[in-house]
Predict the 3D structure of the following.
Amino acid sequence: MPQTTRAQQRERTRRTLLDVSRELFASQGYAAVGLAEIVEAADVTKGALYHHFASKAALFRAVLTEVQEEVGERVAAAAEERKDPWERLAAGCQEFITAATHPDIQRIMLIDGPAVLGWHEWRAMDESSSARHLAEQLGDLVERGVIAPQPVIPLAHLLSGAMNEAALWLAASGSADDLADTRAALSRMLGALRTH
C-alpha cells in the first residue's frame, strides 16, 4: 500500500508541475519563466522537479506533447463526426485552425515550440502527432480519386505549413473577422484539390 501511495504522490507532483508550467509558459512564454518560479507555483522542491524532468526544456517538451495531443484529439473528433472522407479532411483542417487560435496553444505549440526545441525536433513531434494523420487522410482521398494522383507527403507538408502559418497570423490579427476569413480561404484552398 505505501508504494501505491508514493506512486500516486509522484504522479500528482508530475501532474502539478505540468499544469503549472503550462499555465506559466502560456502566459509569459518559455524564456520568461524560470525554474524557481515553476517550483514555487507548484509548491515543490527543485529536487522534485528534477526527479521528473531533466531540465526546463524537458519539462517544456512534455507540456508541448500534451498540447499537441489535445489539438490532435480535437481535430480527430471533428473529423470523426463526418461520414464522407472529404468532409472528414475539411472538418479536421478547420478544427485545427480554430483550435490553434487559442493564445495558449499558439504560444506553446507554434511560437515557443520551434524556438525552444529547434525546428527539427519540433517538426518530428508535429509529424508524430498530427502531420501523419493529415498525410493518411490525403492518401485515402488520392486512392479514392477525390484528389488527383500525386505524391502525398509534399502535399501534406504544404497544407500543414499553410495552416500553421495562418494560425500564427491569426495570433497577431486584430480583426474579429479574420478567423472567419481564414476558414473561408482554407475551404477554397482545399476545394481546389478536389477532382470532382
About this structure: The radius of gyration is 19 Å. The chain is about 80% helix and 0% strand. The longest helix spans residues 2-28. The chain has a mean pLDDT of 91.
